[in-house]
Amino acid sequence: MKSPKPAKNQLAFVVHDEHNVPRYYELNRSLLKMLLIGLPTLTFISLACLVAGLVFYMNFINHFKKQDIQDLQKFKTQYEEIAQKLKILQDNNNALEKKMTSASPDKLDALNLIRFTPGQLDQSKSATISIEGISGNKISPVWEGKQMHLKFNLLNNAPESNRQVGFLFVVMQADSIMQIYPPNSFAENEIQITFNRGEIFGFNKLRFVDAIFDFPLNPGKVQFKILLFNKLGDLIFNESIQHQPSGNPQ
Question: First CA to last CA across the chain, in angstroms?
């Protein structure tokens, strides 16, 4: 048997089988090339695209995970800062409430009683006035009958002993009781004192002061604050004195 001649674009082959008649086959060369080359190439390209897509997806997910972690850390830091500031504000608020609702045993806030006006200055840190006890003794209160006296001298330390002129207040606090010298320092219907309601003083070298208070019952620690203002209302002297009575005088 003679096999037919195949066309140029055909690939022919004969299959021999000892039990059957030989069979003749023809295949298209282009189709065979596509099967042998095109399909593997297409498969490779598909796999490459799949791998590239998977890599891109993983990078995308990792980027957002990292960004989420950074955002969470940032929000956590901001939350901690806000919580810390709130705690500080709460502590300050509690301290202020405690200060406003209870008398301080160690500090006399007498300056809160004075009405300051714009332009008044605090010159007490460079004071040219000092105080001393009578005959050089320590400044401490004495009792005469039912009255408490705080006696002391004002000393002029100004250059060339320039005359000192102004207004004087002495504030006494014993337990929850507060008294102010001179009497009638408060104007009618006023809850604060103006500087010119104090006791007037004017001296060149020395000036004696006898501040008199009603004796408080069962006093514990007694505190005094001496305040001096000049004619313009500037605070020129500010000093505190504490005294612990050894026993109640009769």
Answer: 156
Cβ atoms within 10 A of the Cβ of 150, count? 22
Q: Which numeric CATH code is attached to 110-243?
A: 2.60.40.2360
State residue 118 phi and psi, 5-degree precision.
Answer: -55, 135
Q: What predicted TM-score, i.e. pTM, was given to this entire model?
A: 0.53
SS3 143: strand
- For residues 9 and 187, give the distance between their C-alpha atoms in angstroms, rounded to a whole number: 126
The contacts of residue 239 (CB under 8 Å, 6+ apart) are 131, 225, 226
Task: Report whether the peptide linkage leading into residue 159 is cis, meaning its omega lies within 30 degrees of zero.
Answer: no
Tokens of 44: 């490779």
Domain boundaries, the chain: 1-73, 110-243
Pairing of strands 177-181, 199-203: unpaired
The two three-digit tokens of residue 159, written as one number:
């250059």
Per residue in 41-60, pLDDT tens? 888 888 889 888 888 888 88
**What pLDDT is recorded for position 100?**
54
d(CA 177, CA 220): 11
| Per-residue tokens: 9 | 């674009």
Q: Nearest Cα to 156, choosing from 146, 147, 166?
A: 166
What is the structure's pLDDT at 4?
Answer: 57
pLDDT surpasses 50 at 172 = yes
Using CA atoms, how far apart are residues 120 and 125, in angstroms rounded to an integer? Answer: 14
Q: How far apart are CA 163 and CA 201, in angstroms?
A: 10
